């Protein structure tokens, strides 16, 4: 027990001794660190004081430079302001000098005007005196004339006015007639010039359409497949397309007959697909025909859009664009309807521009004037009235509507472009070669025109020129005099007017040439 206590006491004493020794060691280290920290703090303080001094000097230098810069700018501004003030003073002095000169000139001019005024006053007084003397002489002269003529001045004046009035009226009537004749001649000449220029500046392709289409085959064996067992395939094609198929002895060809070019095109494309595919039976035929119809509808829309883009026409309703595309598959008297409408549109634009009107509106009306010829449904209305109804339905301009409906005189023309559309439609349709039937009529009319002139005595030759718009008649000089030439021209024109049917007007020119030939031997 005692030894345990002793050991405990010894342990406690050792712990106390260790603690004391550790504390002594710690106090020594702490003093060292404090001394080291104080030295570092002194060093940092010295560095901070040095940096502050350097920064202070730098800022002082920058402030001096800024002050010098501002002072230089201030000096420049003062110099500039002084220069401007000096310039202003110089201008004011110059202006004062100029005003002084003008004032001196004005004073001089005023003095001169006063002198002129005095001179004019003296001259006026002299003129008044002479006028008084002249009036006295005139009154004396009038009294003498009245005494000689036994008429008063008022009566003589009245008679003179009456005679001058009648003479002036006669001359005015003659002059008025000359002006009217000259205006009519110039108007006719200008109208012909405008029409001829419009025709010459417009060139459109002329395509003659037929009512049949020939479908070529690689061999005659395919004809049997197209006809089918007991003719069921050919009947299915005819029922689906509405086109008559003529299978005859023509080698390697089938004729598609229909007055509707759109149906013929559908039938041709359908046959081409069926022959290429090789599967020809009623169900397949109906499927191919339906696909072809959809394809044609897309093609029609594409043609319409391309046409309006090429012509520069904007804002058309989609249905009108589709109708324009359908024109590609229609013909009128053998003339392709779309080509005809494009030509009329270009002619209308040219003529409207020549006349100082709106060419875009005229071109729009010219393109749409025959839309009534391609209706989706049958109608009892004429194509002009039906076209006007369609244009009104799809919100077209009233002038365009009236031009469409009036181009065959089925409506009253209410706008200036309406007769332009009518004239351009006639030009396009009556052009030689444009239409199959019109070509023969044109040749017949030209021949009749020349023969009519040859029936008169003294006529040697007759030529119809300018597409039948002018008739040149050459007469024999020894049989027809100059006076007879005038009478002959009038009679031929009257006979043409009463006996023939023709578009526009025909100019009759009689040519008489007298040649005197002698030989010196």
Please tell me about this protein's structure:
With 521 residues, the chain is mainly α. It has 14 helices and eight strands. Strands 1-3-2 form a three-stranded antiparallel β-sheet, with helices on one face. Strands 6-7-8 form a three-stranded mixed β-sheet, covered by helices on one side. Strands 4-5 form a two-stranded antiparallel sheet. Helix 10 (383-393) packs antiparallel against helix 11. It is flat and about 185 Å long. The N and C termini lie far apart (195 Å).
Placed side by side, the strands forming the largest sheet appear as 1-3-2
Order of helices and strands: HHEHHEEHHHEEHHHHHHEEHE
**What would the principal axes of the Cα set say about the shape?**
flat
End-to-end CA span: 195 Å
Largest sheet: 3 strands, antiparallel
**Helix content percent band:** over 70%
């Amino acid at each position: 027990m005692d030894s345990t206590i002793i050991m405990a006491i010894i342990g406690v004493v050792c712990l106390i001794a260790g603690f004391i020794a550790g504390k002594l060691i710690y106090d020594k280290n702490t003093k060292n660190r404090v001394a080291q920290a104080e030295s570092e703090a002194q060093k940092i303080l010295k560095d901070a004081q040095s940096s502050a001094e350097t920064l202070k000097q730098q800022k002082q230098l920058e402030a001096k430079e800024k002050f010098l810069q501002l002072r230089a700018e201030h000096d420049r501004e003062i110099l500039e302001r002084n220069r401007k003030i000096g310039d202003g003073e110089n201008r004011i002095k110059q202006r004062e000098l100029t005003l002084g000169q003008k004032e001196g000139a004005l004073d001089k001019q005023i003095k001169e005007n006063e002198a002129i005024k005095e001179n004019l006053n003296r001259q006026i007084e002299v003129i008044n005196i002479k006028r008084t003397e002249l009036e006295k002489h005139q009154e004396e002269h009038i009294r003498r004339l009245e005494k000689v003529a036994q008429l008063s001045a008022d009566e003589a004046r009245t008679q003179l006015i009456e005679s001058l009035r009648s003479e002036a009226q006669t001359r005015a009537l003659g002059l008025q007639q000359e002006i009217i004749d000259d205006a009519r001649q110039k108007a006719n000449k200008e109208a012909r010039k405008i029409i001829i220029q419009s025709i010459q500046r417009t060139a459109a392709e002329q395509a003659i359409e037929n009512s049949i289409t020939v479908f070529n085959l690689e061999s005659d064996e395919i004809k049997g497949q197209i006809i089918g067992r007991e003719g069921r395939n050919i009947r299915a094609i005819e029922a689906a397309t509405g086109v008559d198929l003529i299978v005859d002895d023509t080698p390697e060809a089938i004729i598609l007959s229909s007055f509707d070019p759109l149906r013929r095109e559908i039938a041709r494309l359908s046959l081409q697909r069926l022959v290429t595919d090789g599967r020809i039976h009623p169900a397949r035929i109906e499927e191919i025909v339906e696909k072809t119809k959809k394809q044609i509808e897309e093609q029609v829309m594409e043609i319409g859009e391309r046409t309006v883009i090429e012509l520069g026409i904007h804002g058309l309703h989609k249905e009108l664009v589709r109708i324009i595309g359908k024109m590609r598959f229609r013909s009128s008297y053998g003339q392709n309807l779309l080509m005809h409408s494009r030509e009329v549109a270009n002619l209308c634009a040219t003529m409207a521009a020549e006349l100082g009107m709106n060419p875009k509106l005229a071109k729009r009306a010219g393109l749409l004037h025959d839309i009534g010829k391609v209706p989706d449904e049958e109608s009892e209305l004429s194509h002009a009235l039906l076209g006007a109804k369609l244009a009104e339905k799809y919100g077209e301009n009233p002038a365009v509507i009236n031009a469409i409906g009036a181009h065959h005189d089925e409506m009253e023309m209410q706008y200036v472009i309406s007769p332009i559309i009518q004239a351009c439609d006639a030009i396009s349709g009556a052009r030689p070669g444009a239409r199959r039937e019109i070509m023969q009529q044109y040749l017949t009319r030209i021949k009749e025109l020349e023969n009519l002139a040859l029936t008169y005595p003294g006529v040697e030759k007759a030529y119809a020129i300018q597409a039948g718009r002018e008739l040149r008649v050459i007469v024999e000089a020894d049989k027809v005099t100059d006076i007879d030439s005038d009478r002959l021209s009038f009679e031929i024109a009257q006979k043409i007017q009463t006996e023939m049917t023709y578009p526009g007007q025909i100019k009759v020119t009689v040519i008489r040439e007298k040649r005197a030939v002698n030989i010196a031997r």
